[in-house]
Amino acid sequence: MARTVGIGKQDFEKVRKEGVFYVDKTKFIREWWESGFGRYDVMLEPRRPEDDGIILEFKVQDRTEEKNLSDTADAALKQIKEKKYKTALTEKGIAEGNIRCYGFAFCGKQVFIKN
C-alpha cells in the first residue's frame, strides 16, 4: 500500500487516520531560531550551478547606530560579507559572480532594499 506525504497537515488525528508520513522538525526549527548567529536569513539555492543563487539578510534599523535605512541595508550587506555567507553556495559549485546578495532594512512599515 502506497503512503502519501502529508504536506501542510495541521491535524495530527487526520495524519494518523490517513496514514501519511509525518516528520517533526520542531527541534530543528527551535535550534535554528534560537541560535540566531552565523547564518543568513534566507538563501535561495539554484537547481543548476550556472544559475543565480540569492542571499537575503534582514535588519531592523537601530536608530542609535544608523541614521537612515540605507545605512541599515549597508549593515546587512556588510554582515553577509563579514560572515562569508556566500561560502554556503560556492561550496556547492555556484560561481561567486552568480550569487546575488540583498540587504533588507526595516523601520516600522518602511522598507529599503539594497544589493
Description:
The chain is of the alpha+beta class. It contains four helices and four strands, in the order ααββααββ. The chain has helices spanning 12-18, 26-35, 69-82, 87-90, and strands at residues 42-44, 53-60, 99-107, 110-114. The protein has a four-stranded mixed β-sheet with strand order 1-2-3-4. A hairpin with an 8-residue loop joins β1 and β2. The chain is extended, with a radius of gyration of 19 Å.
Determine Rg (CA atoms, Å). 19 Å
Instruction: Please state the structural category.
Output: alpha+beta
Query: Which strand order does the major sheet show?
Result: 1-2-3-4
Question: Biggest sheet, in brief?
Answer: 4 strands, mixed
Q: Write down the secondary-structure element order.
A: HHEEHHEE
Stretches where pLDDT is under 50 for at least 5 consecutive residues are: none
Helical fraction: 25-40%
Mean pLDDT: 82
Number of helices: 4
Principal-axis shape? extended
Oligomer: single chain
User: What percentage of the residues does DSSP assign to strands (E)?
Assistant: 15-25%
Task: Give the N-to-C terminal Cα separation.
Answer: 50 Å
Total E-strand runs: 4
